[in-house]
């Protein structure tokens, strides 16, 4: 009788071990990020059980999913015990992710496998930015007013994305959330990163087609990668050297996007331009390879167990703070553009004086030309005179026309 009893107890132990798997933890330096990771994991899992509708209805643009969590104890070292998570328009954003070719499981993995990394970029509004650990997605904090604007924008934006088959330079909005931590409400929107997760950006510009008060501040210039502006761009004589065919394609998309924004009376948007210098990128990759080879040589004398750990370098045991996976692996070899990842990338044309890759997209598209902007225009007109046409605050039609002209000229060169 003792043999079957032993066998049964072993089976019981096995069963218990499977039943009590390790619960997924969401470790982050900020409680807000822990709650965000938990929230994305929960909402994507919940959505996987919801059937995909044939078409979106008006109510889907007002819908939300909401969850209040009390006494959240299993992970109390990493997360607050009480918090709320609200996802806005879940079916709309799921549909947008699909149209932008982003799988929900990949989206969840990028935003929950390791904590998002704070980004030093900050707008005039004081918004905070974070990158997903693999640098594929950007999180931006919003105000409650911006959330309202996003709601009214979304009902026009989604049909436009459908009509354009996802071919746009507008921000790719992928999810919007309200997180309540310690009684304080925080709003976040997730977008696709304009820049590459494996090619370094060597120059960065925020261009509006305006020349009044449009240069980087002294404080900005102290940064490792400052965001330069229109006058800096003009002074440096930058040329977006992509050739006639690519220029025509870019301007067609940009013109359609600007017309869409103009119809909605939106203005003050920018063209975000990132420049990757291929020669410099190759040198950086070579330096990284040499450093890696030196580290491997030093570690050869270590114990077998250490060697085993080294083989796990890109695996799940990587500390939460260190970006890993595709981004870090590929930094050791120079690959150039990867089309499915670098969707905003345009290479310089054959025979260009300098081999470069340009990343081009529209950002900050939610400013409505209302009373406040009209007052700002009046104030600047008084300051600079009515004949100055480089003022950034102007009506949407004028803004869009000047914006397209500036970009077209920038592509042709000076």
Rg over alpha carbons: 25 Å
Strand content: 15-25%
SSE order, as H and E?
HHEEHHEEEHEEEHEHHEHHHEEHH
* Molecular shape: globular
Q: Give the second-level CATH assignment, the architecture of the largest domain.
A: 2-Layer Sandwich
Look at the helices and sheets and give the structural class. alpha+beta
**How far from one another are the termini?**
92 Å
CATH fold category name of the largest domain: Phosphatidylinositol Phosphate Kinase Iibeta, Chain: A, domain 2
Number of helix segments? 13
**Stretches where pLDDT falls below 50 for ≥5 residues?**
1-21, 303-331, 373-388
- Specify the biggest β-sheet: 7 strands, antiparallel
Number of spatially distinct domains: 2
- The CATH superfamily of the largest domain appears as 2-Layer Sandwich
Explain what the structure shows.
With 414 residues, this protein is α+β, with helices and mostly antiparallel strands. It is globular and about 60 Å long. It has helices spanning 2-19, 31-47, 90-99, 104-112, 144-163, 218-221, 230-235, 244-263, 278-299, 304-311, 326-330, 371-384, 396-412, and strands at residues 64-69, 83-88, 117-119, 129-131, 137-142, 173-181, 184-192, 203-207, 227-228, 270-277, 345-347, 356-363. Mean pLDDT is 82; it is low at 1-21, 303-331 and 373-388. It is built from 13 helices and twelve strands. The strands form two sheets. A seven-stranded antiparallel sheet has the order 1-2-6-7-5-4-3. The protein has a five-stranded mixed sheet with strand order 9-8-10-12-11. The protein has two domains: 25-193, Phosphatidylinositol Phosphate Kinase II Beta (2-Layer Sandwich); 198-294 and 337-413, 2-Layer Sandwich (Phosphatidylinositol Phosphate Kinase Iibeta, Chain: A, domain 2). It is 41% helix and 16% strand. The longest helix has 22 residues, at 278-299. One of its GO terms (biological process) is phosphatidylinositol phosphate biosynthetic process. Residues 28-411 form the PIPK domain. Its EC number is 2.7.1.149. Its main location: cytoplasm. Keywords: ATP-binding, Cytoplasm, Kinase, Lipid metabolism, Nucleotide-binding, Transferase.
